[in-house]
Amino acid sequence: MNLAVLSVIAFAVAIIISCVSEINVGFLSIAFAFIIGVGLGGMKATDVAAGFPTSLFLILVGVTLFFSQANVNGTLHKIAKHSVKLARGNVGMIPVIFFFLAAGLAGIGAGNIATTALLAPVAMAVAGNMGISGFLMTVVVCCGANSGALSPLAPTGVIANGLLARIGITNQEWPTFYNNFLAEGFVGLTGYFLLGGYKLMSRNAPAKALKADDALLAHEGPFTGHQKLTLALIGAMVISVARYKIDVGMAAIIAAAIMTLTRAANEEKAVKAMPWNVILMVSGVTVLISILEKKGGMDLFTTILARFSTQTSVTGVMGFVTGVISVYSSSSGVVLPAFIPTIPGLIQKIGGGNAMAIASSVNVGAHLVDVSPLSTLGALCIANAAASEDRKALFNKLMIWGLSMSVIGAFVCWVFFGLL
């Protein structure tokens, strides 16, 4: 058996294990890379290690450290609580406000998982007080968080843009974000209104429910000096990246250093709270991908994908395949590193195509299914469901939604990034 086939088999095994176990597939991928590269391929260990994405790793560490500091010192929590005070009056608009609040927090750098963790306790409690379906609230919070996840400032956006840069696609950070935001927003808000949100628009919040929410949001107080510094650094980081094209990793590391020097956050807690499992997963899978590229496995993998794709259908196919895998696996840690590198070869094999359209299909397909209770986002919302909520029914509804998104996501990707 040649090395190309062996590398694809190792890659497939890593993906399957990531779907059925809690093992960090990053470590496993690095082990497979050394076995195939050094043990079977005659490569030097240093050549295999050269596949480690040092630049991407540093950017992820900088961004996640800074926003972990902002979370640990209570700044993000306080932003969320103060913003929720806007959710008054018309009951139907409350979930819409949560959607845009989640999108905003995720987009400024908190990322989809941290944002959902911040908002789920408040959002699900408000839903219980106001008589809003926990299912509908989960859909808008998770889709909102995912709609901001591909921002150049957010960890998932950093991962996607780093992977795109490795295949020669640069300066597409904001189109990547816009494409994902539009698709996630369309699915999330359309689903909300069609599945019952339109009925809520005619309801006004009762006084008893408003008092319950006032109690929920009480005792927040004004921003402290350290929190104001954090807000200023977030603002400076957003402006420097968006307006002056400063490298997001450099900006984040400088901001994190300022936070540390001024003792604006507990550094030890912030480091422990960083998503190290995702960082190591992305880095490890990327090392294995580099072996596939060097030993012909990537060409074989793209050949398999090309058999099911045409120039017309490729966006839908990629949206479906990435969605199905992402239901059971990590979107940013496994699916993006696995499929974004296939884009150049896939375009060549099917005779043409738009690289950004295919990349957007991978991004959107992988994330639309994350409302599933098997994903971190869906699980966080179930865990924080109101006492009045039937959690088993909520689990079943979210499971149906998540699985259906692999099909709906394929259609959305085909329409948004293929036809349009």
> Spans with pLDDT under 50 lasting ≥5 residues?
none
H/I helix tally? 21
Query: β content, as a range?
Result: under 5%
| Helix content bin | over 70%
Radius of gyration: 22 Å
Main attributes of the structure:
0% strand, 420 residues, mainly alpha
Per-chain topology:
Elements: H1 3-20, H2 25-40, H3 45-49, H4 54-72, H5 75-84, H6 93-130, H7 134-147, H8 155-166, H9 173-200, H10 207-217, H11 225-242, H12 248-261, H13 267-273, H14 276-295, H15 297-306, H16 314-328, H17 331-339, H18 343-350, H19 355-368, H20 376-383, H21 391-419
Helix pairs in contact: 1-2, 1-14, 1-15, 1-16, 2-14, 4-8, 4-12, 4-13, 5-6, 6-7, 6-9, 6-10, 6-20, 7-9, 7-20, 9-19, 11-12, 14-17, 15-18, 16-17, 16-19, 16-21, 17-19, 19-21
Could you please describe the fold and organization of this structure?
With 420 residues, the protein is mainly alpha-helical. It has one domain. It contains 21 helices and no strands. It is globular, with a radius of gyration of 22 Å. The mean pLDDT is 91.
Provide a short characterization of the protein structure:
The protein is mostly helical and 420 residues long.
